[in-house]
Automatic annotation (TrEMBL):
Pfam families: HSP20. Residues 35-152 form the SHSP domain. It comes from Halomonas dongshanensis. The keyword rRNA-binding does not apply. This is Hsp20 family protein. It comes from the Bacteria. SUPFAM superfamilies: HSP20-like chaperones (SSF49764). Belongs to the small heat shock protein (HSP20) family. InterPro entries: A-crystallin/Hsp20_dom, ACD_IbpA/B, HSP20-like_chaperone. The keyword Transcription regulation does not apply. Keywords: Stress response.
């Protein structure tokens, strides 16, 4: 399962309204068919920590560090989860059987387009939450500059 999503540094209202409509349609069909809706990707939060620091947090309950991979390639942040083979075999061959398994353990891949000048500075996994630290480092020459207007100068035209 692969999801490509533009990474919003600032909340995009239209995107969330559009996504919400699809979520409602998915829930409606799920009620009619009795199937559980499948999330397109792990649930996530984006939090501003400071003027130029952000944190992207993904919900990945039950995943181990060794099963998760984070990489950046050409301005794109890719996060994937792949279950270890021994765990797959253990689940299939064991006499242990799940009565209910509501925590998704399907392999996943989520991709985000990072805005220009945003870099990943670190990541941590704690209590089923994968936190990815982001830094927006805009060079001084590209930052907005205020230009003062000198009201006292008058241009004169000389013939």
């Amino acid at each position: 399962m692969m999801t490509l999503r533009t990474f919003p540094v600032l909340h995009d209202l239209s995107d969330s309204l559009f996504a919400d409509r699809f979520n409602r349609i998915d829930r409606l069909f799920s009620q009619l068919t009795g199937n559980t809706p499948l999330p397109a990707m792990p649930a996530y939060n984006i939090r501003r920590l400071a003027d130029n620091r952000y944190e992207l947090t993904l919900s990945v309950p039950g995943w181990k560090e060794s099963e998760l991979e984070i990489e950046t390639v050409g301005g794109q942040l890719n996060i994937s989860g792949k279950r270890e083979e021994e765990e797959k075999e253990e689940t299939e061959n064991s006499e242990e059987r799940w009565i209910h398994r509501g925590i998704s353990r399907s392999d996943f891949r989520a991709s985000y387009n990072l805005p220009e000048h945003v870099k990943v500075t670190g990541a941590s996994l704690e209590n089923g939450l994968l936190a990815i630290e982001l830094l927006q480092d805009i060079p001084e020459e590209e930052k907005p500059q205020r230009i003062s207007i000198n009201a006292n100068s008058v241009l004169e035209h000389k013939p």
